[in-house]
Target: Endoglucanase
Amino acid sequence: METRVSLWLPLLLCSIMCLGTNVVQGNPNYKDALAKSILFFQGQRSGRLPTNQLLSWRSNSGLSDGAVARVDLTGGYYDAGDNVKFNFPMAYTTTMLSWSTLEYGKRMGAQLPNARAAIRWATDYLLKCAKATPGKLYVGVGDPNVDHSCWERPEDMDTTRSVYSVSPSNPGSDVAGETAAALAAASLVFRVADPKYSRLLLNTAKQVMQFAMQYRGAYSDSLGSAVCPFYCSYSGYKDELLWGAAWLYRATNDVYYANFLKSLGANDATDIFSWDNKFAGARVLLSRRALLNKDSSYEQFRQQAEDFMCRILPNSPSSTTQYTPGGLMFKLSESNLQYVTSITFLLTTYSKYMSSAKHTFSCGNMVVTPSTLKYLAKKQVDYILGVNPLKMSYMVGYGTTFPRRIHHRGSSLPSLLSHPQAIGCQGGFQPFYYTSSPNPNILTGAIVGGPDQNDGFSDDRTAYSHSEPATYINAAIVGPLTYFAASYSA
Model:
């Protein structure tokens, strides 16, 4: 009976999730989507751009970042459609790009150097933030409240580039733990390709993690309106301590981190994974030791990872996840695809671990195989790439029908090449923001916030919760796209 349930599960899933979708089935061109998903990061770059910059409508920006604190904080990424550098989501983006490269790098082919370049653009900046001033970790550049009242190109920024930091007296265990995770994960990416850089990343990760562990507190409490409501640490900082220690343990095998992990007592059940809440990601990462290394002391994390999967699967008796009529996972109305891509990464990665370990588990009386998770992950990726009721690709520049009016300053305003005159803080709203015309610049590979719970999408620049792209949406889908690019022909 168990075998029959597991064999028929994909058909059962489809009967539930494909009902009334009227979409064309088939395998999208995952290889093309993968290349574009990584190219997107070039459009988010801050700092002095390299000569091999392919998205040529972008130019140098933020060249004085850090000057008000007399430090060099140039580089890094703008998080979404604005011109602020928020390190909390940027570090998560870096961790997810690194994890994608670690799990799937051997399948990336020609995209592996591009993935490393995208990671390094972030880690070069994060290293500056960690090393510029002893006893401080810089965690952001640009006043978000001022920036969000402007609509101007990053190349024209004339707003105050305020600098924000955490310290022993103003702690930020969440942003520090995530920064440590990013540096540790990236150190593994560069361990063979650039050993010297890898050592620098790992040594800095250890220092930042020590700070996160020693000086406990949420960065939202320390920085207030500089990060809230934009990137408040809603889930607290225990998840980042777990996440950071998990990555340090993976990078070092130091029992110090293993002991810390087990002392945290992080038993919070969850059905989400995002830049804010890392519990599920940490548990999948740690379950690797239970499944692949047969280490029974990590069984707790395996069980928690599988509890998470049971909360995601649509016909699991313990599912707490809503799906749209077209089969898209729907978590929250604000930028829903960020949750879809992050959870999809965990689905493919846990499926991969299960396959290697020849492992299955149960959600009640439902047997879950590696194929169960892989099927659901493919459904989500395909939906994003256009296998949905609107036949709309939610990746800009992929396919023929994709969002043309994304909520993104650089994309929506003419480039310096076509409009060399400066566009001031308020100068971009008319005629560029409040217009139904398509954006003049294509932010290739950008995945937007996505459709509503009824599969509807208006392609409206002012509807930012649906039309705004973000680095953390893209970073999480790189792994699944690589996985499916290697599994299916275009």
Remarks:
- The domain at 27-487 is CATH 1.50.10.10 (Glycosyltransferase).
- The longest helix spans residues 337-357.
- The two ends are 36 Å apart (CA to CA).
